[in-house]
Design a protein that fits this description.
The complex is a heterodimer of chains A (187) and B (190).
Chain A: H1 2-21, H2 30-40, H3 46-58, H4 63-106, H5 110-137, H6 142-157, H7 162-182
Chain B: H1 2-15, H2 25-34, H3 40-52, H4 57-95, H5 97-102, H6 104-133, H7 145-163, H8 169-189
Helix pairs in contact in B: 1-4, 3-4, 7-8
Classes of the chains: A mainly alpha (187), B mainly alpha (190).
Chain lengths: 187, 190
């Protein structure tokens, strides 16, 4: 019991550090988690971490939260999951709360307005980059292209809620995989 | 009741986000604009803030939307909302994760979800492009050609720097800010 409590506390501190020092969340966290959880504390093996990230990708929610909860649970049960998740969230929460005050204070300055005009154009470049790297990692093929294009068109030109598009496409994927399997192909 | 609404909205967003990074962005745009919690411009500004501060985008944006609309308690509700679905689902999956990993149903759903998320992010990128180039709509009278030209130069330069030179996102944001300030004050002179 005492050991579990101590591990939970270490989990909190570890994930607090991860939350406070990784920029970009999600995948940027993998090397730090490996170093702290596998190398330093030897709580999990390398391939277990890879499994965890694979699952974090196919369960709902941000990857950072999913993997923190999962690692925490494996190391110290429910309380460990709670401590790891709380730890990874807390730095963001504090930093953004402070920054929102600063943003409000300065947002009326002319130079700040001009800066953000430039920044918005820079953000466009950043999200295009993110989009291209995701596209490169995705499987290609007619089925993928139809879903990509369909989701893009429906979301850009109709008022249909994004959530319905997501549910519909998950079902389409499921049906498609069943049909493929019936024909004796693997997905 | 804004607190409950923030919690429920971000709970839904957390429950239907698949994948990392900006996978959450289309859902955020949908919900935030529908409720008129923030302007599209404020969301784009915040993407830059989130890139320049530590922590996952999902938590950063939930906290920000929460605090802007409902103060600290609003931030707590939104952040709790976005975290809770993950937390619950993972606790369940962690017990059966070997089965989950080999589940054909999960694999099937993911073959549909992966490309969909990319299409949805592409649509979010289009929204951002509209905000950058047509902040006041497409009517000719509302177009500011000077700002459009400046934005185009910065966006193209940004794409070149990030794809070819692979510069760090924060550096790109700093460069964009400096260029924006310079262009703004030059614009006042002419």
């Amino acid at each position: 019991m005492k050991n579990k409590l101590k591990n939970a506390l270490i989990l909190f501190v570890t994930f607090f550090k991860i939350g406070a020092f990784t920029f970009g969340g999600g995948y940027a966290m993998i090397p730090i988690i490996e170093k702290e959880i596998c190398d330093k504390h030897k709580w999990l093996k390398g391939e277990e971490i890879l499994d965890i990230f694979a699952i974090a990708e196919s369960t709902p929610g941000p990857i950072a939260i999913n993997s923190a909860t999962f690692v925490g649970y494996k190391v110290a049960g429910f309380f460990g999951a709670f401590c790891a998740t709380f730890g990874v969230v807390l730095p963001s929460f504090v930093i953004i709360s402070l920054i929102s005050l600063v943003l409000k204070e300065f947002s009326e300055y002319k130079a700040v307005k001009y800066a953000f005009m430039g920044i918005r154009a820079g953000v466009l470049a950043l999200v295009i980059k993110a989009l291209v790297s995701m596209y490169k990692k995705c499987s290609k093929g007619l089925f993928s292209y139809i879903l990509m294009g369909g989701a893009l068109l429906i979301s850009a030109f109709t008022e249909i809620n994004v959530i319905y598009i997501i549910i519909a496409c998950a079902l389409i994927g499921l049906i498609y995989s069943v049909v493929l399997r019936k024909r004796g192909k693997e997905v | 009741m804004i607190y409950l609404e923030l919690f429920l909205t971000f709970f839904r967003i957390g429950l239907f986000t698949f994948g990392g990074g900006y996978a959450m962005l289309p859902l955020i745009q949908d919900a935030v604009l529908q409720n008129a919690w923030l302007s599209e411009e404020a969301i784009v500004n915040f993407i830059a803030v989130s890139e320049s501060t530590p922590g996952p985008f999902a938590i950063n944006i939930a906290t920000y939307v929460g605090i802007e609309t409902g103060g600290i308690l609003g931030a707590v509700c939104a952040t709790l909302g976005v975290v809770l679905p993950s937390f619950i689902v993972i606790l369940i999956v962690a017990k059966v994760y070997k089965k989950f990993q080999e589940s054909k149903t999960v694999k099937g759903c993911m073959t549909g979800l992966r490309p969909t998320v990319i299409g949805l992010i592409a649509s979010a990128v289009l929204n951002i492009g509209t905000t950058v180039f047509f902040p006041d709509g497409f009517a000719l009278a509302n177009l500011n050609f000077y700002n459009m030209a400046v934005s185009l130069v910065i966006a193209v330069l940004g794409i070149l720097l990030i794809f070819k030179k692979k510069i760090h996102p924060i550096l790109l944001i700093v460069i964009s800010a400096v260029l924006g300030i310079a262009a703004g004050f030059i614009g006042e002179l002419i």
